[in-house]
Amino acid sequence: MNCNERVPSLLPSLMRAASHDDATIATRTATAVYYLDLIASRRWFSFEHHILRDGDSKLKQLAQVIASVPDFHGMSLLHAIVRHRPPLSILSRVIEMHPEMVDAEDSFGRTALHVAASTNDISAIQFLAAIGPQSCVVQDIDEKTPLHILCDTSAILFEGDDRRKRPPTFEMVMALLSPNMNSVVIEDSNEANALEYAILSKCDVKTVKALQEATRTIMKRRSEQTSTSNNNMKKFSRRVTS
Question: How far apart are CA 181 and CA 195, in angstroms?
Fold first, then answer.
């Protein structure tokens, strides 16, 4: 099922902003258009050469421009980069400069890990989940975690993107389950969990079984915790009334 809220195509939105009456703002935004085009066309060598080589100043300027454009709905530069499946060297360098972007949410409540999940980029998924495990259980405006997005091949976060042709692999799913298994039992606004989406998306048997096993583990753990809590309450009540 498609996500209800999508971010519009980035370059057209930024090009409109480049026509700003203020010459300084227009020039800065026009430069950002060029840099974003490098990202969108995956010219990573040029991106690294023009932005990352000279330290943080250009990267920070680009991040500020993206943050200032209303059509981007509060997305960070990391959201924009992850959408286009960057090399791990680029991803790690950007995060090294701006670690706060790992937890940053856009106005739809989505982190960069949500975006990575929508691309089936195993390297980005593994890296972001490992350094920011808390993002694995973040729910967006549709109450979807990155695991929901990953397992639902019809989930589209950006206008102009197509439905993924292949379901996620076992390795992708485990990359999101390993840091925080609780995400497997979280339901979205459609009252569906990741396992249900995985079945609808025709994930392979190994992947579905892994989600089933994770679900049983979490439910058993919660049942045991509830039982322990009830027993403790009974013991407390007996002490109070004796």
Answer: 12
The C-alpha R_g of the chain, in whole angstroms, comes to 21
C-alpha span between 107 and 5 (Å, rounded): 10
Say whether pTM exceeds 0.90: no
Taking the C-alpha atoms of residue 80 and residue 59, their distance in angstroms, rounded to an integer, is: 12
pLDDT bin (cut points 50, 70, 90) of residue 1 is very low
Q: How far is CA 106 from the centre of its chain?
A: 10
- Which of these, 65, 84, 77, 121, lies nearest to 101 by C-alpha position? 77
| The two three-digit tokens of residue 106, written as one number | 């856009």
How many other CB atoms are found less than 10 A from the CB of residue 84?
Answer: 19
State residue 149's pLDDT score.
Answer: 98
The helix/strand/coil state of 7 is strand
Q: What letter would DSSP give residue 158?
A: B
